[in-house]
Amino acid sequence: MSTIKVDFARLRATAKAKKLSSYKIAKKDGQIAPATIVKILNGSTTPTAVSLKRICDVLDFPIEDAFTTKAAA
To answer: Which pLDDT tens digit goes with each residue over 9-56?
Structure first.
């Protein structure tokens, strides 16, 4: 059995590589507050599917690449 989780580190790395701060992501998206994006990218809150898709769209990052699969112990 495996667990699917959001790869927050990969999303943060992509945002950093594209020089997009949480504020810039929020401004480009127009729907999600910068504070919420900070929480999502830091992994301190679980994003909705819609929010995750919106962030991935701004980052031009395929949503299927935003997940990691780990085998359950």
So the answer is: 999 999 999 999 999 999 999 999 999 999 999 999 989 999 999 999
The DSSP secondary structure of 55-66, one letter per residue, reads HHHHHT--GGGG
B/e letters for 36-64, b = 16+ CB within 10 Å, e = fewer, are bbbebbeeeeebeeebbebbbebbebeee
Total residues found in the chain within this entry: 73
Compute CA distances 30 → 17, 20, 26, whole Å: 21, 14, 6
Distance of CA 15 to the CA centre of its chain: 9
Q: Is residue 20 within 8 Å of 59, Cβ to Cβ? A: yes
| CA gap 73, 59 in Å, rounded | 33
Nearest to 20 by CA among 42, 45, 39, 37: 37
